[in-house]
Design goal:
heterodimer; A: about 110 residues; mainly beta; six-stranded mixed beta sheet; four-stranded antiparallel beta sheet; about 0% helix; globular; B: about 110 residues; about 50% strand
Chain lengths: ~110, ~110
Amino acid sequence: AQKVTQAQTEISVVEKEDVTLDCVYETRDTTYYLFWYKQPPSGELVFLIRRNSFDEQNEISGRYSWNFQKSTSSFNFTITASQVVDSAVYFCALKTSNTGKLIFGQGTTLQVKP
Amino acid sequence: NAGVTQTPKFQVLKTGQSMTLQCAQDMNHEYMSWYRQDPGMGLRLIHYSVGAGITDQGEVPNGYNVSRSTTEDFPLRLLSAAPSQTSVYFCASSPGLAVYEQYFGPGTRLTVT
């Protein structure tokens, strides 16, 4: 069975703090894909990143960085120097190569206070 | 490019009524899917399609029907609305199965009274 767990339901930080959103996944497949999506208060879903199971290289994009560790089945997302505009619900998701279905975690609501 | 479009944005139904949520994409994507979003549960897959004429069930298909007569359109039908179907519905598309990210429509907020 495939499963994605985002244990943090809500996180509140003050602007300029760093924050890490945790994502733990379960799958028996050797080839799979991990995603992060952002859902701002306006409601749309915005794609942030995709990571393949055979590529454990971490990625940095501006203030965003992602740490993928197969040994712990985790794909964590860090926002450095958070801003109010980062306030949103963030979803981690898993897709396996044999089904193509996207399985979402429950989401983490991030509130960044000025 | 319009991307993925959904209509209507908001809808209120009475228990037992039927309706169709429309979804269209102009990116020539083969894969389309429908999700519902409920508080604390993330997004759950209702139905999906890997191409015109091919559909399959997702995680929560009961009470919903789909069809895919064209590559562009993937409507979701509620046969007899129930309060448990109150949710936000998202349609998504992608060029293929696993490796590609999915592009989401703006969502339809449905309330069943």
